[in-house]
Amino acid sequence: MRGLIYIPFLFLVSLKLVNAQQVQDKFIRTNGVQLHYLDFGGSGLPLIFLQSFHDDASEWHTGEMAGIAQQFISDYQVLAVTRRGWGKSDHSEWGYDVATQSEDLLGFMDALGIKKAVLIGRIPANQDMIWIAEHHPERIATLVMIGNPYLGLNSSEPEIRTYESELLAMSWDLGERAVAMRGPRNSWRPDFLSDSIARIAIPTLRFLSKMDVESLPGGRNAFYLNRTIQQVSAPDFKPWNDRVAQAAAYFRELGKESSRQEFIRNHFIKYDPGPSFRASLERAFGENLQTVWEPELPEDADFDSFWEEVYAPFYVKEIKTFLNETLE
């Protein structure tokens, strides 16, 4: 681990300098909506960083993934886009499924005259990238997926559907429209899941962690069962809107009924689509998929310091190496 924690002084200086550079807020209209994006600068082949579950494009500037995008402006045109419904992008009444939001991204590229780009994202953004890879592979130079793609269970069981909706309602930054905005993505299924001969011939880098919740038994939904019950049962918990208050009441009641909890947990584990999905993904990408394991966070480490000193430089180094090898 010591080799991972040691980072050259010049890299940290460089990281602070590029973070201080001007990043421009911009807007562009496509598919009937105005999308917000950040222009980090640079020129050459575009690198487009895609938003995750929360926040907006600033995730890659001042948010959870800060310190990565700016490191590529010397060799690429670097952009980060906010999907419809989030942040400063238009909030429409429809269009929150994977196909429509993927088409939004293609429209964004068209509006900027981008024929082909490197796409970089994590978890839900991986859904959009795979959709484009299956339907418009000519638009992608390479893919970088941080974490495994999220795959909702989309169950017909009433208890499970209620649980999934109430969990989505707990999204801290989406207000009372959280379920309407995130729910449609649960029904997404890639073509290669049902087509055993489907192949994706795009060089792809995948980062995985031993704490990747998509890979745990039962996936994301099972992982957050106990955590959410504990969260809403804490004395200092305060719901941030009326819909969250409703969801919190549901989880507090659920916390009193161990048999219901066991039913929900067992259902997610029994019908978890994750293992077959990941096996199908690896089959579809084949030798085009390169997997790198992230360094582990020491138990006593300060996350912010570890991010700046280890995680961010790790991602930058691995992505640059991958791009240098695949874009020659």
Structure description:
The chain is of the alpha/beta class and 328 residues long. The chain folds into 2 domains: 2-150 and 188-214 and 273-326, Alpha/Beta hydrolase fold, catalytic domain (Rossmann fold, 3-Layer(aba) Sandwich), CATH 3.40.50; 152-187 and 218-271, no CATH class. Helices cover 41% and strands 15% of the residues. It is built from 11 helices and 8 strands. The protein has helices spanning 2-5, 9-19, 98-111, 124-135, 158-169, 178-182, 219-233, 242-255, 258-270, 274-285, 303-326; strands at 24-30, 33-41, 46-50, 77-81, 117-122, 140-146, 204-208, 289-293. The chain has an 8-stranded mixed β-sheet, sandwiched between helices. α7 packs across α8 (242-255) and α7 (219-233) runs antiparallel to α9. The longest helix has 24 residues, at 303-326. The chain is globular. Mean pLDDT is 90; it is low at 1-20.
How are the secondary structure elements laid out?
Elements: H1 2-5, H2 9-19, E1 24-30, E2 33-41, E3 46-50, E4 77-81, H3 98-111, E5 117-122, H4 124-135, E6 140-146, H5 158-169, H6 178-182, E7 204-208, H7 219-233, H8 242-255, H9 258-270, H10 274-285, E8 289-293, H11 303-326
Parallel strand pairs: 3-4, 3-5, 5-6, 6-7, 7-8
Antiparallel strand pairs: 1-2, 2-4
Helix pairs in contact: 3-4, 7-8, 7-9
